[in-house]
Amino acid sequence: MDISTVIFFVVGVAGLVIGAEALVRGAARLAGRTGLSPVVIGLTVVAFGTSAPELAVSLGAGINDEAELAVGNVVGSNIANVLLVLGLSAVVGGGLIVHQRIVRIDVPIMVVLSIVVFLLGLDGELDRWEGVVFVAVLIGYVTWTVVSARKSEAEIEAEYDDAIDLDDLATSSALADVGFVLLGLVLLVIGSSALVEAATDIAASLGVSELVIGLTVVAVGTSLPEIATSILAAARGQRDLAVGNAVGSNLFNILAVLGITAAVSPSSLPIPDGAISLDLPVMIAVAVACLPIFWNGYALMRWEGVIFLAYYAGYITYLVLDSSDHDASDGFGAAILYFVIPLTVLTFAVAAYRSHRLDRTSI
């Protein structure tokens, strides 16, 4: 490990911290100035911006016929955005408030799109025309989200009372707010790239195998902007922004990153068998799990965030064991699949049912 690695590491951390601060500040002010709620800004501007690394990686991989990297990047990032990003944000922020539109609209869309990707991939590829359809759906989703949000002025004003200091808008201009957003996005991309480079060099110098580096450093690397932005948003009280960022990033990853990559690929975009048998089902399960969890009081509690983090650790552990043909991989996978996951789903379902009963009796 040489001095350049240390420099890359410092630059990466600084870029993520400063970039996340600028992006959250600019996005919050932009929300107040444009009349859009923080959750909508999180679902669109912030989410799409923080997914720039995924787009860059998958697009380059698709053009170079590296299908496994392109698909794995999207699927792995979507899993990380829910389990890792939301988990960390809930733990750091003492829980996250989930906007009702995310539970009723955006998470169901995320579930449907995850299933659609799985079904389209059963034939082993995503055709170029399917990628074009994904991009068209994205345009329709963003347009509908913005238009429908503009009609909820009373609800937005109430949300601003808790989330945004409107008096602070007088100290900045619209151009400055846009500048903060753009600066934040640029710094997040630069910071994540530098940190991934440094972490890879450090891991290699410690004798860690390329397999482990790829499954951990590279997989998490493209989600670093989401991690930094959501954690900072949660810590600063912009909890709708944190949740909207994670969910919106997942929608963007499927519709834009996967869609554009499939559309510009030399032919079609191959879907690896391993993604069909393991990773895509995990992505669907993670998306589905959000429904009962978020519905439970429209919040992601700190203890639920801890469970999210534990599942992500278990997922990464299984990938490492399975890829290295370790003897413990079968038993570990079976324990997770047939015992831990069903027990957790049952716990969340019971909690959601009790919350629903309490809501009905209080009316």
Q: Provide the CATH topology.
A: A middle domain of Talin 1
What is the helix tally?
14
The biggest sheet, with number of strands, parallel, antiparallel or mixed sense and barrel status, is: 2 strands, antiparallel
Q: What's the end-to-end separation, in Å?
A: 63 Å
Taken from the alpha-carbon principal axes, the silhouette is globular
Task: Output the radius of gyration.
Answer: 20 Å
Q: Overall pLDDT, averaged?
A: 75
Name given to the CATH architecture: Up-down Bundle
Unreliable stretches: 156-167
CATH hierarchy class name:
Mainly Alpha
CATH homologous superfamily (4th level) name: NCX, central ion-binding region
> What's the helix-strand series?
HHHHEHEHHHHHHEHEHH
Structural class category = mainly alpha
Strand order of the largest sheet: 1-4
Number of domains: 1
Instruction: State the share of residues found in helices, binned by percent.
Output: over 70%
Question: What is the strand content?
Answer: under 5%
The counted number of beta strands is 4
